[in-house]
Amino acid sequence: MKLFKLCLVAMVVAIFATTGMAMAGTLDEVRAKGFIQTGVNGTVFGFSMPDKKGVWKGIDVDTAKAIAAAVFGDANKVKFVALTAVQRLPALQSKEIDVLCRNTTQTLTRETVNGLNFCHVNYYDGQGFLVWKKLGVKSAKELEGATVCVLPGTTTEMNAADFFRKYRMKWKPVVIESGAELNKAYLAGRCDCLTSDASQLAALRSVAPNPDDHALLPEIISKEPLCPVVRHGDDQWYDIVNWTVMALIQAEEYGMTSKNVDSMLKSKDPTIMRFLGVTPGMGKALGLDDKWAYNIIKQVGNYGEIFERTVGVNTKLGLERGLNDLWTRGGLMYSAAFR
Ligand SMILES: N[C@@H](CCC(=O)N[C@@H](CS)C(=O)NCC(=O)O)C(=O)O
Fold it and tell me: Which of 19, 40, 223, 225 is deepest in the core (most CB within 10 A)?
């Protein structure tokens, strides 16, 4: 009898898991509490970091604000919690957070073994190496015997191990869980080299006391598609986060910005009318207000606006669009169809 009951429970759980009918949906939960609890990084300039006044800034922060604008019509209904790389996946699995926007790479095992869903990429990155120029190293293949600062619980750690094994080089990892402490250790000269997502190496160099003392080596040794992440088993919440990122990209493709979105409400283009909810349907399909995409663009801007103000060429980071440009300009940013 006990076994029968156990089987019944397992079957019900399996049905919920496979149909995506989550028991209490995250959308209902965030609506009930009135905000979205978002896991972020907290120390990477341009991605998620509070400024001098304590205001959170960055591409991951703006992604979370866009989700809040879609859900609540108010981009400020979001709370941020800083998590280390080791803490981030358990925080999502244990429902401490509703969504993770923390420069997190989509991988096969994170999606399967960790039971997570990665939504549309909000930054295409790749792993690089930052070295002290005084070492005279010009290529990562010259790092034989190097001391390498690396963060645990990251793809970075695993890729570095693969890289040194592949080129039969010895290396001495210096593993420190706190990103801030890791950066300090590198800047204090405890490591010859720091390895990380290349965007973050640029971020660190930009805030280093003497940026010119450091060089980014030419090799990019991995693919790091960074995405907002949600739990398996809640398809509606996945759809909302996924389509929020795509709305940011699609708006840029339409030439729609926070400045001109009001005038676009008068457009007679059926695709724009549908996107902005002038013709209803898209919002309702997601379980949201039909003005969801309008609210995102009006309050947060399109993907290009976010990119330029957080990490773009006119910021301290000075990153080019590169892979993060629209597909129409040779990049990888491509939204699925809004219909
Ligand atoms: N994208 C990689 C790496 C993410 C990551 O944690 N990067 C480091 C770069 S140093 C970071 O965010 N450090 C800042 C911190 O831990 O506060 C992953 O998903 O594992």
Answer: 40
pTM: 0.92
Instruction: Calculate how far, in angstroms, residue 200's C-alpha sits from the geometric centre of ligand 1.
Output: 8
- Whole-angstrom CA distances from 27 to 22, 24, 89 are 11, 8, 20
Q: How far is residue 112's CA from residue 126's CA, in Å, rounded to a whole number?
A: 22
What the block records as the tokens of 261 is 């979105």
Closest ligand 1 atom number to CA of residue 82: 17
| Half-sphere exposure of residue 152: CA atoms within 13 angstroms, side-chain side | 8
Helix (H) or strand (E) holding 237: helix 235-254
Strand, helix or coil for residue 214: strand
Look at residues 120, 36, 96 and name the one whose alpha carbon lies nearest to residue 72: 36
User: CB of 38 within 8 A of CB of 91?
Assistant: no
- Other Cβ atoms closer than 10 A to 147: 16
Is residue 60 in contact with ligand 1, taking CB distance under 6 Å? no
CA of 201 from ligand 1 middle (Å) equals 10
Q: Is 85 in the pocket of ligand 1 (CB under 6 A)?
A: yes
**What DSSP state is assigned to residue 233?**
T
What does the block give as tokens for 241? 């986060």
pLDDT in tens, the chain (339 residues): 444 454 444 444 444 444 444 456 999 999 999 999 999 999 888 999 999 999 999 999 999 999 999 999 999 999 999 999 999 999 999 999 999 999 999 999 999 999 999 999 999 999 999 999 999 999 999 999 999 999 999 999 999 999 999 999 999 999 999 999 999 999 999 999 999 999 989 889 988 999 999 999 999 999 999 999 999 999 999 999 999 999 999 999 999 999 999 999 999 999 999 999 999 999 999 999 999 999 999 999 999 999 999 999 999 889 999 999 999 999 999 999 999
